Amino acid sequence: MNESVSQSSIAEHLQMVVDAIIEGELVFFLGAGVNLCDRSGDKTWKHGEFLPDGSELAQILAEEFHYPPDYPSDLTRVSQYVDTMLGSARLYKKLRQLLDVDYPLTSAHKFLATLPKILRDKGCERANQLIVTTNYDDLLERAFKQEEQEFDLVFYMTEAVYRGKLMRRLLNGDLALIEEYVDLRGKFMHQLPSGDLVVIDRPNEYVFLSLEQRPIILKIHGAIDRNNMEKDSFVITEDHYIDYLSRANNSSFVPVSLNNVLQNSHFLFWGYSLRDWNLRVFLHRLWGEQRLKHTSWAIQLRPNELDKEFWLKRDVKIKELQLCEYISELEKWLRVVPQYRRPS
């Protein structure tokens, strides 16, 4: 553990996080820094070996497309340059080349995929989590599949007819439930799926997502579709973020059941820093300039003063720890929790 965090402080924090998880009142937020989990500090990105983080992705795109060296080098600017000068097809093709790879799973993804079983084995009634991520890769989905843990996948679309909408990937049996609801109510006909996807066209009325059924992965800035490049979606350019911000607030964007979870949970941020303004965009849509309603935490090693001020403004407490070490300690705490039963 980092020396700047006392053992008593981390113990108190872990107990609060474990309690929130057991009560079903914790939402995990995953940023690009999660891709650095388990990677030694002296290793740089190498195609196929591990996923790039945001700054590495910006550098890759800048080198590939001869981005002017005197221009700002953040990912949104670099992506906007490629999109403007060469078109979105070239940008998407390169992103797919980088992401359509079976990168090794990190301890972060493995932990989240095993968490529902850990909680079920403890007798927890609320064993499923909402996981929100701004990442485009499919490591989390692959981790869940490896553990044979079913999950619901919801992601944002940036292109084509469903631009600005959330899409849900259906599992076996889901279509029958939706069709039954359509027969009863007669007002969701436009939501019938094309293939294995369904558009969430009326989030305030969408009732088919629940943590009582299975964990939910919400990819708020799009996702790669490894089976069909036509369904790839990335919120990555400046224009994408402008369009994203111009949409209605989250109460009419996120399905009502998920919005209720977001409004009534603690947040645990992994892999974010002040540079990740994609997170700030989403939080602004969710609450505007308000502080978070529940105490939340960010795991970030060596945050700078701007990071500290940003998190403080949102009433988010920073724990200065290596993410992989933090996850290891959190899993230990969860596994030693005694058999849990909610009082009758």
Order of neighbouring strands in the sheet with most strands: 5-4-3-6-2-1-9-10-11
The overall average pLDDT, rounded, is 84
Query: Which H/E pattern describes the elements?
Result: HEHHHHEHEEHEEEEHHEHEHEH
Structural class, please? alpha/beta
> What's the N-to-C terminus distance?
38 Å
How many DSSP H or I helices?
Answer: 12
Question: What does this protein structure show overall?
Answer:
The protein starts with 6 loop residues before the first helix and ends in an 8-residue tail after the last helix. It is α/β, with parallel strands linked by helices and 344 residues long. Strands 5-4-3-6-2-1-9-10-11 form a nine-stranded mixed β-sheet. It has a two-stranded antiparallel ribbon with strand order 7-8. About 3% of the residues have low confidence. It is globular. The protein is built from twelve helices and eleven strands.
Topology summary:
Blueprint: H1 7-22, E1 26-30, H2 54-64, H3 75-86, H4 88-99, H5 107-121, E2 130-133, H6 139-146, E3 152-156, E4 166-169, H7 174-185, E5 197-200, E6 216-219, E7 222-223, E8 233-234, H8 238-246, H9 256-263, E9 266-270, H10 277-287, E10 296-299, H11 305-313, E11 316-319, H12 323-336
Parallel strand pairs: 1-2, 1-9, 2-6, 3-6, 9-10, 10-11
Antiparallel strand pairs: 3-4, 4-5, 7-8
Helix pairs in contact: 1-12, 2-3, 3-4, 5-6, 5-12
